[in-house]
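Dear U.,

For the methods section draft, I wanted the exact inputs and outputs in one place so we can describe them consistently. I've listed the two proteins in the order they'll appear in the manuscript figures. Please don't edit the token lines directly; just add comments below if something needs changing.

First protein:
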Amino acid sequence: MKKITFILLLLSISLNLGLIYKFFYEGEKVVLAKDGRSEIKMTEENREFVMTEMRGFLESVQKINEGIAKNDPEIITKVGQQSGTCKVDVVPQGLVRSLPYEFKQMGFQTHELFDAISKIAKKNYDRQQTQEKLNQLLNNCVACHKTYKISVEK
């Protein structure tokens, strides 16, 4: 009886690990695109959400850069908060499941960098440190766009 229980436990653990890998690490529909990037296929609604968010990131980067140029931490604080981790709560259902783990990591890190930029500007503004964080954020954007392509599943 103990042997059967042990075998069932191992099967259950294996199945759960496989499901966790499939839904949290691999992503649902990722294929190699012709240009060598990983192509993430998703619904039109989810693609629109991601594209809108990325355009928002770009607008935020421009405003943060403006804040640095004008030496105005209030602009940076406000914009950093708008693109920070608070945005994670408004993700459409099913989107996170469709994304590969590395894409999710970059996305969360990008939101966290916006938070860090906002915090620097609010607590102890330093132009150099803000510029360095902004550069890290832009490196994230470049890496993501070099690695991934998003298309609508047919």
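Second protein (the one for the lower panel):
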Amino acid sequence: MRPHVFWEHRVYPGHLSGLGGVRADLAADLAGFDPDTVDTLTLVTSELFANCCKYTDSGREGGEVLRALSMPDPGTLRVGLSDFGGGGGVPAVPRERTADEWDGAEGQRGLLMVENLASAWGHHRLAPWADLGTHVWATLPVDPAGVPPGLRPYVFTR
């Protein structure tokens, strides 16, 4: 199925210093959408981007993360992030902890947040025959009546 709206991909350096640019670009790309939806998608995207940087090879010198943004249908926003270069693990919500371990845990709560904010999320390898990287995505519902008028099927981002 072709996306209802497709924003041009954006590529970022694969380190956390690029997170401000990821957030600013997402806010610019979604200008006119409901601010709460934009804030929620920004939070989800920030966590997924940080995971790309922390748990994969994108954090190495020259590593990159690609951001994809689309509306696969009039009522859904979808963001996807791809780490290039492999070396990462499989994204998973941690479940094997005692209550005391969760209370003391500093990290690994981000995917729990994504799971609770997004209507769906998932991941796949960029190439099933090689470790070329991982693509992780999340979707959020959007009220079709609140979509900015005049949105074109393909949005150039720069």
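Candidate sentences for the figure legend, describing the second protein: The chain is about 30% helix and 30% strand. Residues 3 and 72 are 4 Å apart (CA to CA).

Thanks,
Y.
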